[in-house]
């Protein structure tokens, strides 16, 4: 499974096979069942997760007591509770598998050690966080700009495979809809 | 002015005075008047800005034709349109000074060259983007969680100096209020 991570790294930084074998020692490969909890809101987040196969989501329980999904992580995406992972503070978010998943995990101590021992990984993570931040900035603009309905339409248009892959109740949880309301909108699109 | 940047870097990475003198060659120091445009939505963003003194804001024009402010950058904070800066695509945001400001600017070409010539700066920018991303993730949670009123109250509580420093019409533009509505809320707090 680790060749997926190697092919991914190759897009960002030069890493020999020998270096990669050493880099992999900082990670563990774990398998999770569908709907398995990786982190619960309020816990200390001990791991950063890299998805090799499957799908994760990040969510919190809103004031109505329902799950508000804020992010998904597909293959070759990272996911963690960033503040909690760095500062050992209680997590703002929960993380759960959406599908059966194969994941690389690394603890914050191992990640710090990896960055010290292989400074080229600083470049890799710099690019990863730079792009994640850029995407999040655009996300904030979208939240202010689009109505929930328009956001759903743009999701279908930009990421049709993703909308097909994710259960509808989670798309609803991501958009802040009830599943019933999403179902109504879908009927309207078909008719 | 550059000693402010040196003191800031010292918090993240070891840099000798000689190295710092070389690093400064990649930057320009610029002065901007109050309310001066550094970037307009739709332009290509050519610079990353580090605030030495003063205050910047990032905004876009929403569908009602009013300015929605999404971010502020105080002293020792970075600001750019991240996608546009990296990919040379039209900017999603405008950037403007709120106060007369002293700013370090670096072009994307110079920043790439700086990172190649001084790999220790990869670590610095990795930490900067990592924290910016973490803050933005929490921001998304706040947007979903707080009403605009509650968000204003938490701003006053967490950042009283900041709320004092920024003109009220810009606080309103950040919160998505009209200035009149913000003024009403403020009266309600006083009474």
From TrEMBL, chains A, B:
GO terms for molecular function: kinase activity. CDD domains: CAP_ED. Residues 30-116 form the Cyclic nucleotide-binding domain. Keywords: Kinase, Transferase. InterPro entries: cNMP-bd_dom, cNMP-bd_dom_sf, RmlC-like_jellyroll. This is cAMP-binding domain of CRP or a regulatory subunit of cAMP-dependent protein kinases.
